[in-house]
Amino acid sequence: MDKIPIIIDCDPGHDDALMLMLAFGSGRFDVKAVSTSAGNQTQDKTLGNALKLLTLIGQRVPVFRGAEKPLHRELIIADYVHGETGLDGPELPVPTFEQESTPAAEGIAHILEASSEPITIVPTGPLTNIALLLSTYPHLKHKIKRISLMGGGIFRGNMTPLAEFNIYADPEAAAIVFESGVPITMCGLDVTHKALVYAEDIARFRAIGNQTGTVAAGLLDFFSKFYRENRTELHGGAALHDPCAIAWLMDPEMFQSKSCYVRVETQGAYTTGATVVDFYRVLAQKPNVEVVYDLNRERYIDLLATSIAALP
Ligand SMILES: [Ca+2]
Q: pTM for this one?
């Protein structure tokens, strides 16, 4: 099977870490580059975390530093979930390599330009870098096969009652991405709050016995604390958001989704950062997003376990 060419834009972040393990460990992707967004933590920290994680899993691809803050707003971070470092919990290795000198949007543009085939972009943080890419290099849109992202939701939010963190952090950037005309897959809170990882799954990752499994388990132990304390309706499960955006590319059949017209609210009194999903097609507009809302959780955990086992 041919590997799927992708570029990952992330803000590690505990669930971003598991997303990277899935992307690299699955063997299904030709990862052209990783760029970092400021989101779960500051740009300095998410960039450092990406370099540490790639060092841990023995992968060396170009890493690009992304924007320091959202397009028009001040940076908000999610240290209440991810801790002071953005990846609190286990010990991580000192990076064995450095980021490229090119900024993210420019670096991604060069890769798209040089590629003979369209590349899928997988953003799992705020969409600042991807909005900069699309607005600075609009002639390269046709080189983007799809944007498979974690963000948004149909009926709920986790920052405000209707807005999810990644979209809320930079709604103007998200609006640019959703209005770009590039095909989008949106793994929002509807599916990611069913992509639960429980204590027994964490024990399974730890029992793999390699360094990746040990770190994955340590990260998820820390990450689960927030969910056990604040999302009791998940019954001890932690919502493992970001790997969904990769898993959908591997096996869309394990998910349920619907093609919908989606816009991002940037000015609402109560709804800024909401993804407005026309689920029942009341506007009769052409769908621009494949909205993912359910998955086969057991298969998702199996994919993660297999991928972690294939890494150092
Ligand atoms: Ca993330």
A: 0.98
